[in-house]
Amino acid sequence: MGQRLSGEWRGWRAAAEEALYGADGFYRRPEGPAAHFRTSVHASPLFAAAVARLLCLLDEALGRPAELTFVDMAAGRGELVAGVLDALPGDVAARTRACAVEVAGRPPNLDPGIEWLAEPPEKITGLLFANEWLDNVPVEVAEADADGVPRLVLVRRDGTERLGEPVTGTDAAWLERWWPLSAEGARAEIGAPRDSAWAAAVATVERGLAVAVDYAHRAEARPPFGTLTGFRAGRECAPVPDGSCDITAHVALDACALPGARLLTQRDALRALGITGARPPLTLASTDPTAYVRALAHAGAAAELTAPGGLGDFGWLLQPVGVPEAALAGLEGS
């Protein structure tokens, strides 16, 4: 079986689906994603605190419902949902239904109050938050041939690639609309499955807000050779679809956006939620050295989360559902 698969040519979507989510896939491995790459969630508890702040703002906009749902999409080992619960005021936490959505099994020692689900619940009143989920929704890769015709890129289990048939149908229409290719060797990830996945996730929200946070690009600045890559043991590596590494590609969030959505950077979103990275005044060092050191560490963590050229450049896609635009008033400073 392994030998047959190693020599089989497939599109990147099928290859990555098996490599990431198959029976022996990367995301089912016991060590969890945090052993291989660092997200904003792992960088600092300030990220969970900011998401908790967003949930509180939404709670007020929703009129403080009897049950406020928080859904953590692609929850890893539950780090974000646990951090958000810890950061919520007691009265809000008491009304919060916390749900983690993940393909892997429930981790041990997770708060028993957190629901562990394979799919998001229906009719959510609250916040669905997808941090670095869409970049792992597998997609096809296209490359323009010598005549400028976009063709599917086929791959074997060992990562060897070749060009296949021309892109047709809905994939061709998506490329033409969102990421046209013409120059020989130009590459793109065809984001239609991500658009569909995001629309399905948003559809579970009856009243509230859906947020996608990810490596992103927009139509005016698409990368000319695509962004497909891998991560293993904390280092970027070649994307080899054998289950040994993460396989990821940046997200065309502008294509995912539904009517009424807002797009902004993580830097702007977190600053509006109180994560600024401002250094404490030096006078504090002499009047309260312990508080100064604590504030300095806080500033350093905030600076990493909002850094240009790093996590601060992540895209945030905010999709309100059944709430007035004023529900996002807490982010108007962005």
TrEMBL record:
Keywords: Methyltransferase, Transferase. Pfam families: Methyltransf_28. Coiled coil: none annotated. It comes from the Bacteria. GO terms for molecular function: methyltransferase activity. GO terms for biological process: methylation. This is SAM-dependent methyltransferase. It comes from Streptomyces cynarae. The lineage of its organism: Bacteria, Bacillati, Actinomycetota, Actinomycetes, Kitasatosporales.
